[in-house]
Design a protein that fits this description.
single chain; alpha+beta; five-stranded mixed sheet; three-stranded antiparallel sheet; 20% strand
């Protein structure tokens, strides 16, 4: 049986729509439809109920979906185990600030249970590249935050959505407020991201930068952000979920869109370790589907 057709079928079954499945697979819809028809002819059973709004699985399709998932997972493990036996199996995970810690230990446990022999390398990115090296091929998958310029090459899946606050020193008058508005940040020194930062990311975190003291410190890491607040009295935006050292407080800010904690990967990847990592994410966080 053709594994490629099985992969196509699984994506159609998950998307419940040929158009969305074709987009996810980076292929045109007609050859995808033909491939599923050929699979149905090979098995001698209709696998999908087709309608104008999408598709649903027949009883035969439900049975094949479960079997295909198990078979494809087993097929993915073959090159991983061969590479592990040769000492070359490695997954490089990019992370931004404390994003990996925020996912929790369950993801590690789930992935390690499937691949105890794989060498996992962590690469911490600075704040100029929220893709954590995914765009340049330095990592295989990333745990990071949006928004950043995704383009056609990167898919993301939201793990959690966090509101935004402004981090200030505990003795700052703003720290006594229950919430803040953007106008409350006017004429305050704010830490700034470097000029070579991803433009979408920089514009998001520099929200309401007009009227800001331009002498604020330029920072490249979360630690530099926090230390610039602690030592220099600067302020800046950050997710309310981030952990703060003693002496700092994050106050909610009204009027700002939230930030998503995401897993990101190269769209259409065939890397079995990346697919296995995404399955581990799905096991602890729910089904993973691409966005962007």
């Amino acid at each position: 049986m053709d594994l490629r057709r099985l992969r196509y079928f699984v994506v159609v079954a998950e998307e419940r729509h040929f158009g969305r499945a074709a987009e996810r697979l980076h292929m045109a819809q007609p050859p995808l439809s033909r491939s599923i028809q050929q699979l149905e002819a090979e098995l001698g059973h209709r696998l999908l109920h087709r309608s104008a709004t999408g598709v649903s699985l027949t009883p035969a399709g439900e049975a094949l979906y479960a079997e295909a998932q198990a078979l494809l997972e087993q097929a993915d493990r073959i090159p991983i185990r061969v590479a592990a036996a040769a000492g070359t199996a490695m997954l490089t995970i990019g992370m931004l600030a404390d994003s990996a810690e925020q996912i929790g230990p369950h993801l590690v446990t789930e992935f390690r249970a499937a691949h105890p022999e794989v060498n996992v390398r962590m690469r911490e990115a600075d704040l100029t590249d929220p893709s954590c090296g995914l765009k340049t091929g330095l990592v295989d998958v990333a745990l990071t935050r949006t928004p950043f310029h995704v383009g056609d090459g990167i898919a993301t899946h939201v793990l959690r959505t966090d509101p935004i606050g402004v981090v200030v020193r505990a003795d700052d008058p703003l720290a006594q407020r229950a919430y803040l508005r953007l106008d409350d940040l006017a004429n305050r020194r704010r830490f700034r991201l470097p000029d070579d930062t991803d433009a979408v990311w920089r514009d998001y975190w520099n929200a309401a930068a007009t009227g800001v003291d331009a002498s604020g410190p330029v920072v490249r890491t979360l630690r530099e952000c926090l230390q610039s607040v602690l030592w220099n009295g600067a302020i800046g935006l950050m997710p309310l979920a981030d952990t703060l050292p003693d002496g700092l407080i994050c106050v909610p800010v009204e009027g700002l869109p939230p930030s998503d904690l995401v897993v990101a990967w190269t769209r259409g990847t065939t890397d079995p370790l990346v697919r296995s990592f995404l399955r581990a994410v799905a096991a602890v966080r729910g089904p993973v589907g691409p966005r962007g």
